[in-house]
Amino acid sequence: xxxxxxxxxxxxxxxxxxxxxxxxxxxxxxxxxxxxxxxxxxxxxxxxxxxxxxxxxxxxxxxxxxxxxxxxxxxxxxxxxxxxxxxxxxxxxxxxxxxxxxxxxxxxxxxxxxxxxxxxxxxxxxxxxxxxxxxxxxxxxxxxxxxxxxxxxxxxxxxxxxxxxxxxxxxxxxxxxxxxxxxxxx
Length: 186
Hints:
Helix content: 25-40%
Structural class: alpha+beta
Distance between the termini: 24 Å
Mean pLDDT: 86
Number of strands: 8
CATH class of the domain at 6-133: Alpha Beta
Low-confidence stretches: none
Largest sheet: 8 strands, mixed
Order of helices and strands: EEHHHEEEHEHEEH
CATH topology of the domain at 6-133: Aminopeptidase
Strand content: 25-35%
Radius of gyration: 16 Å
Shape: globular
Oligomer: single chain
């Protein structure tokens, strides 16, 4: 990525480093955050191994830093679309987007800034055709962020998601096309 770190005032968004793991996990594994994630616990050793290993060009993990403190994290996972081959130089088919925010700074727009930055990387840097994201239907904060950044709800899956506390719950899938991103940028 040639254009990192990104300025998303007041955040600076940059690749996650080994030094970020413990501060990130301190809030990422808190119940008010992990209850809305598909994987309710994240293991520091596994995350460190991933960061220290050979970088996967189809996986990107970023952090949002505020006054020297990691307050948000996000990822992009580039993958084949139906009938596509990631090895094709002319096609970057689809990316899956996700993010989370330290509850100490909720409702300050940092989730929106992180999602916008990840969309910019996906569309402007990686030139993917389509970006998707999902959440539990009850996670209003997440689906509001997706709508705020211009993604559209494409699916309401009835009891399609397993929630560790609530059992089978509804899930939403949102998406945006590169052409929509370009049109939105104007």
